[in-house]
Amino acid sequence: MPIEVKNVSCRYGERTPLEVEALREISFRVEDGEFVGIMGHTGCGKSTLIHLMAGLLIPGEGRILIDGKDINEPGYDREELRRTLGIVFQYPESQLFETTVEKDVAFALKHLDLSKAEKAERVRWALEAVGFRADSRSGPPEIAGKSPLALSGGEKRRVAIAGVLAAGPRILIFDEPLAGLDPSGRLEFLELAARLHSQGTTILMVSHDADALCGYADRILVLDRGRLCAEGSPEEIFRDPGRAEALHIGAGEVRRIAQVLYEKGRLQNPEITKYKVLLDEIKRMIKAGEGT
Amino acid sequence: MQAVNGKRIFFTYEDDGVSSPVLEDVSLEIQAGEFIAVLGANGSGKSTLVRLLNGLLPLEKGELKVWNLDPRQESRLWELRRLCGMVFQNPDNQFVSSIVEEDVAFGLRNYDTPEEEIPERVGRALSLVGMRGYERYSTHMLSGGQKQRVAMAGVLAMEPEILIFDEATSMLDPQGRREVLACLRQIHGMGKTIVMITHYVEEALDADRIFLMQGGKLRKSGSPREILTDRGLLAEANLIPPLAVRIYFDLKDSGILLDRCPLTKEELVEELCRLK
What we know:
The complex is a heterodimer.
Chain A: E1 3-12, E2 20-30, E3 35-39, H1 46-53, E4 61-66, E5 69-70, H2 78-84, E6 85-88, H3 101-106, H4 116-129, H5 153-165, E7 171-175, H6 183-198, E8 202-206, H7 210-216, E9 219-224, E10 227-232, H8 234-237, H9 241-246, H10 253-263, H11 275-291
Parallel strand pairs in A: 3-8, 3-9, 6-7, 7-8
Antiparallel strand pairs in A: 1-2, 1-4, 4-5, 9-10
Helix pairs in contact in A: 4-5
Chain B: E1 2-15, E2 18-31, E3 35-40, H1 46-53, E4 61-66, H2 77-83, E5 84-87, H3 100-110, H4 118-128, H5 144-156, E6 162-166, H6 174-189, E7 193-197, E8 209-214, E9 217-222, H7 224-228, H8 231-236, H9 243-253, H10 265-274
Parallel strand pairs in B: 3-7, 3-8, 5-6, 6-7
Antiparallel strand pairs in B: 1-2, 1-4, 8-9
Helix pairs in contact in B: 3-4, 3-5, 4-5, 5-6
């Protein structure tokens, strides 16, 4: 289900003295099964853009098509959009509200036509997907019976994500999913996203973390003051570190180290944005040095 | 002078009769003027620990002195909170006023500061965080980094000795983080004691000492080099070392040994350039 954003503009507070232009003439396409990162300075329009794609805002101009259908056209089946597309907001744990984890995760299934057993299975699957393993083959993980409010911050985040996964969306949008997570929590989340991606889910992820996006995303979109100002592979986006800096998207540590090693004449190519590639290049560099 | 002296602190959260221990037998000392970074996985007890310091959570068991005050002594709690200020994670959750100068003055007014002193103290605090000139701005028009700096100004206006940052940069973009960290270094340079909780190991590189929390215990305190280059220790605490350290160990695992373990990317580059 490709997503097509066609010439979209969006303003807040239109025809008031506080009118601001949040997005101007944005066009891009996300293919089925892609992992796309969205970067940009605070206030550049990232959140507006994903709210538009999720149908939570209506663009002033332009169209948004999912699977060829305009989601803002009268008669469009919004229910289908809700089933197709899941959105995990910033700090999603603040939306937990049910008395138990199980009920919270199952909330999105209420309107789906599923049997009780099917719902229980979905909840169990979603909790497992975010790393809560059940002890027995049949029962749900231990956490299912706990109050979501009594969990640690990292656990709450995972439960909130499970609540979105349970509905089985084919497109997942994450708004700053890494903020506030500890390093292993970040890695766990990224591995989860990669796993969902490898199973065919389309992923759109807003993040300030260049290393994380470069490690996982196929493509990165960069917004600056409401405009789509760059689009390409991680290597292309950070090809010119000065330009990236001007767009307020600092390169990640991996790219920075590669740049310094390149400037010192140790690496042939500074355009490295993935940790594993950097490590391999350093090994190669050391072996080559030993050979001479 | 000791800024903080805690001995054998325990803390337990009660929920529906179920008690979960969060801090177990934590003893710590912080000298005045020190910059301490607190690292630890989610749920390791970092936030609980710092909330005990200014009495946001009640000390149940153990001894604690903060700037020579006992947080249990209720009559001096206001004094303690003035001396030990906190900046929290979410810049939008800590504003009490929609105008910058009103927000910064909030604490001062609560402490019955004479009205004629307030503009000067607010101005001074805003200068310290590089926000002079924003007095009449609406708080919601500011960027994330600016909001956190205004929150810092609100704390600084109280002329505290100890500043606690509880993941104060985690919601900011890279530029906002840089702004806040630059301010923090400047405040440390003025001789204030800083306690900073962070998940970004690079932010801990500047600290005098790191407290590593693990499962409710203060697992180890030491210099950034001591803590962050100890791969086994970090793995046990469920943390990931800085990039330079990761590269060092991954090279070591494949049979390439550098002379010493670099802590920063500059040191890594230096080590790599020394080879040949």
